[in-house]
Amino acid sequence: MKNIFKKKLFKVNSKVRVYVYIFTIFFTIIFLCIIYLSHQNRILLNTIKYYYPVVNNSKIITELDFQNDDSITKFVNNKVSFNNLSYIPSDLESISSTYVFDSKWNSRLRSEANLALQNMAKDFYNYFWKKIVVVSAYRSYLYQVWIKAWWCSDIFCAKAWFSEHQTWLAVDLWEASSKEEFLSKQELVTYFNWLKNNAYKYWFNNSYQKWLEVDWYNIEPWHWRYLWLPLAKKLYDNNQTFAEYYHSNN
Ligand SMILES: [Zn+2]
After folding, report:
1. pTM, to two decimals
2. Residue 201 half-sphere exposure, CB side, CA atoms within 13 Å?
């Protein structure tokens, strides 16, 4: 009697065990499907999601302004300078370190650009599980003078008073001394490709992509400039650089 009961119990147990296995496998598959689909959905969402930074003193821009030092579409390059040598905007912030690694410690940007950078870095982090590395942001007139004192030529380093870094809207991401060095690192190429396809949604544009004839600078895959969204999107859609657009409209 006892043996029969044990056998029955064993049979029941083995059946339960089989059910447990089946359910475990089933729920694992469902769980993995949910993770996969949510990841795909995030990619899909990323293709249609734009960020609109909201800051107290943000101005609503209704047209492009390439001339005013304070405009987020102010154009500068080696032949176009700021109007004011010591231009400094009023809305400045240290770059937050939640999703960005600030290798220079107290790097600063205008608050609007900082917020956009944080939004971009958050999505970048969720995708790669890595922080975006900022190696340079705002550079003052005097700091640029110091850089130029090291015999950095005009095609590598902007002249002081002519640098996009003085807009407080530009960042250099990841350390590299040349385009070749940057692109020789597979990890950086992967990051660059993600930024190339997504940065405009956060109002950023890679300023120097087309060599001297177009941009008047060497190609710099690390240099990203915050711009007005419609312009950043237009440049992305038309595969244009800011300099190319500026020269075709001035
Ligand atoms: Zn730069």
Report:
1. 0.76
2. 19
